[in-house]
């Protein structure tokens, strides 16, 4: 049975790095909502309000891959319950097991350094400041299957922890 692995976390937590590592390790399809959102901005304008459109594109891609029997990793902030409910609805619709993992970086200085120095690999994506990270709305997720704290830890160890959480 295919799995939908939903990685949630604030910018600078390390979720995209771990999502890529998990995808490489497991062969799962990686869907990065930042890519879909930036594609919309690149086509429209840099200040285009993407709203939930990037998530909607992600849900559609996830549906297609899950129906083909492929594992999917959804990499998105998923800060609010409606975003998470969208992934859950896709899992239910496709008869897929959903695994929700929260990626955190409990060291704010480390998260700030990541935000300043990260290379997103997404053409046109503007950097996020520590202040913007702090101001993000974050609703606790009562349905998480686990948490990976990336603060002060090697990427390989974090990917290994994530791999074991999604088995």
Please give a structural write-up:
This protein has 167 residues and is of the alpha/beta class. 47% of the residues lie in helices and 16% in strands. It has a 5-stranded parallel β-sheet with strand order 2-3-1-4-5, sandwiched between helices. Helix 1 (15-26) packs across helix 7 (155-165), helix 2 crosses helix 3 (53-67) and helix 3 (53-67) packs parallel to helix 4. The longest helix has 15 residues, at 53-67.
Structural class: alpha/beta
Instruction: Give the beta-strand count.
Output: 5
Give the % helix: 40-55%
Low-pLDDT regions: none
Overall outline: globular
Sheet with the most strands?
5 strands, parallel
Strand order of the largest sheet: 2-3-1-4-5
Order of helices and strands: EHEHHEHEHHEH
Relative strand content: 15-25%
Distance between the termini: 12 Å
**Mind telling me the C-alpha Rg?**
15 Å
Give me the oligomer status. single chain
Output the keywords:
7 helices, alpha/beta, five-stranded parallel beta sheet, 5 strands, globular, 167 residues, 16% strand
Q: Topology of this protein?
A:
Layout: E1 3-8, H1 15-26, E2 29-32, H2 33-43, H3 53-67, E3 72-75, H4 81-94, E4 97-104, H5 108-117, H6 130-135, E5 146-149, H7 155-165
Parallel strand pairs: 1-3, 1-4, 2-3, 4-5
């Amino acid at each position: 049975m295919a799995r939908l692995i939903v990685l949630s976390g604030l910018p600078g937590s390390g979720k995209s790095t771990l999502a890529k590592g998990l995808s490489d390790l497991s062969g799962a399809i990686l869907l990065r909502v930042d890519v879909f959102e930036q594609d919309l901005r690149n086509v429209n304008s840099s200040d285009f309000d993407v709203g939930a459109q990037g998530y909607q594109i992600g849900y559609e891609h996830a549906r297609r891959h899950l129906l083909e029997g492929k594992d999917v990793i959804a990499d998105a902030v998923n800060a609010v319950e409606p975003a998470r409910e969208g992934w859950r609805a896709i899992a239910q619709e496709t008869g897929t097991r959903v695994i929700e993992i929260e990626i955190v970086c409990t060291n704010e200085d480390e998260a700030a350094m990541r935000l300043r120095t990260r290379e997103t690999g997404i053409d046109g994506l503007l950097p996020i400041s520590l202040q913007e990270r702090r101001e993000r709305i974050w609703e606790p997720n009562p349905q998480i299957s686990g948490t990976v704290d990336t603060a002060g830890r090697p990427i390989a160890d974090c990917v290994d922890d994530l791999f074991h959480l999604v088995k």
